[in-house]
Amino acid sequence: MQPGLIALQARLQHVFSDPSLLQRATTHRSFSADHNERLEFLGDSVLNLAVASLLYRRLSALPEGDLSRVRANLVKQDTLHQLALRLKVSEVLRLGGALEALIGAVYIDAGYVHAEALVHRLFEGVEINPQMQAASKDAKTALQEWLQGRKMKLPQYQVVATVGAAHR
């Protein structure tokens, strides 16, 4: 195994019993057919569940809607990017990659308890507070809540175009 991947395991505080999972988690689809997208898909769900569990315990007085907004604030790309930088994931990536794929790889390798522990360790240094609820309300949610509060019809949405690297 490459020294960079060995060091990443130390930063993750998880030694893979199946090192190929770590290799796959750090491989972008443009590099190899054995890439991280499926692990990223799985890791995204594990991340959401582990953060929901963390918030349920830490913010026990908050109602469900507020917990959902705080969770959305924590699992957004900016926060995940900062966590990936802290783990120095970019040192071992093969043309891109995602923190979610690493979480998915730990889940496959060792189960939910280990993946949840990783997510909880990652978020130890992240400020979590009830005031996050307002900061993460997106424009679509705000519009729908405003309309519903006035008993008005919700808008009908239509995809006009899909552009960008994810849609190539």
Structure explained in plain terms:
It contains nine helices and no strands. α2 packs antiparallel against α6. The chain starts with a helix and ends in a 19-residue tail after the last helix. It is globular, with a radius of gyration of 18 Å. By secondary structure, it is mainly α. The model has no long low-confidence stretch (mean pLDDT 88).
Please sum up the structure shown.
With 168 residues, this protein is mainly α.
Write the layout of secondary structure elements.
Elements: H1 3-12, H2 19-25, H3 37-58, H4 64-74, H5 77-87, H6 99-110, H7 112-122, H8 132-135, H9 139-149
Helix pairs in contact: 2-6, 3-4, 3-6, 3-7, 6-7
The number of strands is 0
Q: State mean pLDDT (0 to 100 scale).
A: 88
Rg, alpha carbons? 18 Å
Largest sheet: none
Order of helices and strands: HHHHHHHHH
User: What would the principal axes of the Cα set say about the shape?
Assistant: globular
Number of helices: 9
How much of the polypeptide forms β-strand, as a percent range?
Answer: under 5%
Structural class estimated from helices and strands:
mainly alpha
Low-pLDDT runs of 5+ residues are none
Distance between the termini: 32 Å
Q: What is the assembly state of the chains in this entry? A: single chain
**Helix share, percent:** 55-70%
